[in-house]
TrEMBL record:
The gene is kce_3. One of its GO terms (molecular function) is metal ion binding. The keyword Signal does not apply. Its EC number is 2.-.-.-. Keywords: Metal-binding, Transferase, Zinc. This is 3-keto-5-aminohexanoate cleavage enzyme.
Amino acid sequence: MARKRKKTIITCAITGAIHTPTMSEALPFTAEDIADQAIEAAKAGASILHLHARNPENGSVSIAPDHFKAFLPVIKQATDAVVNVSTGGSLVNTMEERIAPAKWASPEMCSLNMGSMNFSFHPIADRIKEFRYDWEEAYIRNSEGYIFRNTFADIRFVANELGGTHGVKFEHECYDVGHLYNLKFCMDAGLFKAPVFIQFIFGILGGIGPDIDNLIFMKRTADRLFGDDYQWSVLGAGGAQMPFATTASQMGGNLRVGLEDSLMIARGQLAKSNAEQVTKIRRIVEDLGCEVATPDEAREMLYLKGGDRVAF
C-alpha cells in the first residue's frame, strides 16, 4: 500500500521588517490593514500567520507591544489560524526588546533566528526615486552596515523566556547551513525538544543564495543532523518565492509566502494582497497533488500548545 502523503502547511508572513510603504501600496502597516490581510490570508488557506507590527503613523518597523495588541485579538477572534509572533523585530534592538511582544502575547509560535549574520537590503534604495516617508531611505541604506545579532546567549535567552515559560514552539529560521549546526548544538544542549520546525531561508543578502542546489544541500544536511526529528518549510525571498515554495511542496516540505518575503505575484507585477499570494500557491500545490493543512492539522503536525492557551 502506498504511503499516505502528509499535508502541506502554508505560512503567510504579512508585513515584515524589510519592505517599506513606498515599495508597495499593498504592504499593510496600520493595525486594521494588518488584521484584515491576515484574516483574508487565513481564509485563502494559510494555516500559520507570521506577524510583525508597524507604526501606524508612517509604516516604520515597531516592536511596541501596544502595536501588536491592536491587531492580535482581532485576528484571534476572526480565524483559528496559528499565530506566529516574530522575535526578529528591528535589526537595531536588543533581544529583550525584540521578545517583549511575544512575552505579552504568549502565542503558539514565535520565529527564532539561529545565528548572527550580515542582513542587508541596501541596493533597493538606488531603485527608488522618491520616498513616501522621511525614514525610509536612511533605513534601507543603513542596512549595509547591519549585523543581525543572534548569539548563542541570545538564543538561550529566548528559549528560556518563551519556550520554557510560555510553551512557545519556534520557527527556527536558518539562513545558511551553519545555522542548522547551531540548532543541532542547541538541541544537544537541551534548549529545544524534537520535533523542531525549521524554516530554510534563501535569497537574503548576507545568507545563502536562492539556488535549488542549495535547497537540496540544506535538506540533506538537516536530514543528517535531525533525522526524523524535524519538520521543514521553505522561504524564498523576492523572485524566488513561488518557485521555491512549489519545489518545497513537491519535496515533501512546507512553505511560506507573504508580503514580508516578496511584494510580487508574478514577474514585474506587484501583488494586491497577502491573500493573493496564498491563493496562487495553494492552487499550484493542489494542482500538483498536494493537500493543504488546516490550522488544527498544522497544530498536530508541529505539536503546538493550542490556540486556547495564548494570552490575547
